[in-house]
Amino acid sequence: MIRFVVSPENRVVPDLAAKLPGRGMWLSASRDVLDSPRTRQAFARAAKAQVSVPDCLADLVEAGLVQRMLDAVSLARRAGQVVCGFQKCREWLTSGRAGVVIRSESASPDEFSRLVSGRRSLPVVTVPDRVLASAFGRDRAVYAVMAPGALAQRLIAEHERFSGVAGRPLPDPTGVSKEQAEL
Hints:
Layout: E1 2-6, E2 12-15, E3 25-27, H1 31-35, H2 37-47, H3 57-78, E4 82-84, H4 86-95, E5 100-104, H5 109-115, E6 124-127, H6 129-136, E7 143-146, H7 150-166, H8 178-182
Parallel strand pairs: 5-6
Antiparallel strand pairs: 1-2, 1-3, 4-7, 5-7
Helix pairs in contact: 3-6, 3-7
């Protein structure tokens, strides 16, 4: 779910942290819902006033959720709760220190299978390429592993919301398509 509030200028604003003042209006984290023409009417009814809804509301929410995922990974990096790079990730996975595996959208399915071999029970979060690169200050980063804890749970929750709003299928973390899984 995503919370929205009405600003003093009567504009609908996404409240991704759910901390802005005002009466909150909650919508499902789905691109179909955010792009629906009925959503504009629903905001006006819920606010009991005429409100202005940005045309690119879904894009604003998507960009905000990407930023929240970046913030979670960056905070975990500063706290020493996440590592980047195939070898370091593999060490954390084999030692049992991993709580979440993070991969970029452009990651190779074959390489990912080698990375997590034997540890398929861990949650996998697929993020846009720039999230890991920005969080670690690199030109390119493909994999990261985060320790279990509150930041890992926050990243998983933000990823679930992002997946619904993104409106495009993210790569399957196992590298196996639905058709292959049925065979």
